[in-house]
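Check this.
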Amino acid sequence: MILSFDEIANWQVFEDLVAAYFKYIQEDSSNNITEVRVEPSGEGTDGGRDILVTFRVSDSIDIFERKWVIQCKFYTNSLSKRDLATVNIPSLIHEYGADGYLLVCKNGVTSNVSNMFENFRRKCRLKYTYEIWTGADFLRRIRLNDEILAEFFPAYYKSL
């Protein structure tokens, strides 16, 4: 059996999956994360912020924070610029005092979205970080987490 988003029923479960990934990431010994705070936006219009994640990271000299605004898109087709037209991404980062914006998609993005993020990266004077995880990128990240697989992909997990 192939790991896919077929077991994810809707956008709400997809957002829960993304939030769960960030809650579990602290347990990964390959990083220096000492604390993770995951704040879902809750019910209603979110204005482009589905999840706010704050990492406390140790570099063995000091502990510092990195905050990410995360938007999840559970679209069947590739995400287009039109799908993001109501969100001013740099303003959203600034509003939450974040360091970056992560777009997590069920599938992929169009070249226009990819180019838009590249322009954000290149031209941002405030040094914000802009990232896109396609569905394939996200599946690679969760593939080795048994707790997430058991909870969100039970059929796949049973087939292992």
